[in-house]
Amino acid sequence: MKGFYDELVNTTVPVSSPREAELTKLLENTFRHVNIALVNELAIFGNQLGVNVWESIEAASTKPFGYMKFTPGPGVGGHCLPVDPSYLSWQVRRKLGQSFRFIELANDINDHMPDYVVQRLIAILNREKRALNGSRILLVGLAYKKNTGDIRESPSLRLIELLREYGADVSAVDSHVEEYRWPDGVERVELTKEQANESDAVIVVTDHDDIDLSIVGASTSPVLDTKNCVTGGRVERM
């Protein structure tokens, strides 16, 4: 196996058996999953306490050792973080009869971030004296990862589900997501000044490089920024 991978990658790191190799992958994914859950919960509490958690994260990341920067978001996606840690937790429960509490807690926090985003949106619309039911909501970015079209397990899918359950009319911008992967019932639109201004609210889900975020920042509609990537008078951070 080392000989095979040496032909594909710069450095192969051998371990003693496939079991250690598999746990290596699960460990790395679980590490990210747990730390993302930590900053997600901090973002929730920071908002309630009136603290700019994004600024605190940037300040903490200046420490040259003992800290690794993770940032909040609307949830986790892809085929690794929503799946691999849960597989590890399932194996521990199945073979040892014990709970992997860190993973279960991280799952609970990250899985419910789309619910939190929607609740923040409802609060924003309430200040506008509008109900979510019947509102036109524009999602900016659908893929779970920046500059990719990968929508597998993306938090945007749960967001869409929740928004439609509340009776919202959902449209979205994402040039990376191919047509056959596009979510049913969501209008595909281009990001224009008119599109942003005519929406009742805008949610920035994925900050692709090809998205002109200045259009979002200049919007006359309220904006919920889940990535801390937009500035403007009507922008509110997650």
Task: Spell out the blueprint of helices and strands.
Blueprint: H1 2-6, H2 18-49, H3 53-60, H4 84-96, H5 101-111, H6 113-127, E1 136-140, H7 155-165, E2 169-173, E3 187-188, H8 193-198, E4 201-204, H9 213-217, E5 223-225, E6 235-237
Parallel strand pairs: 1-2, 1-4, 2-3, 4-5, 5-6
Helix pairs in contact: 2-5, 6-7
Could you explain the architecture of this structure?
It is a single chain. With 238 residues, the protein is α/β, with parallel strands linked by helices. It has two domains: 2-110, N-(1-d-carboxylethyl)-l-norvaline Dehydrogenase, domain 2; 113-237, NAD(P)-binding Rossmann-like Domain (Rossmann fold), CATH 3.40.50. The protein has nine helices and six strands; from the N terminus they run ααααααβαββαβαββ. It has a six-stranded parallel sheet with strand order 3-2-1-4-5-6. Helix 9 (213-217) links the parallel strand 4 (201-204) and strand 5 (223-225). The model has no long low-confidence stretch (mean pLDDT 96).
- Fraction of residues in H or I helices: 40-55%
Largest sheet: 6 strands, parallel
| CATH C-level class of the largest domain | Alpha Beta
Number of strands: 6
Q: End-to-end distance, in Å?
A: 45 Å
For this structure, the quaternary state is: single chain
Strand order of the largest sheet: 3-2-1-4-5-6
Coarse morphology: globular
CATH topology annotation of the largest domain: Rossmann fold
**Low-confidence parts lasting 5 or more residues at pLDDT below 50?**
none
H-E order: HHHHHHEHEEHEHEE
Average pLDDT score: 96
- Structural class estimated from helices and strands: alpha/beta
CATH superfamily of the largest domain: NAD(P)-binding Rossmann-like Domain
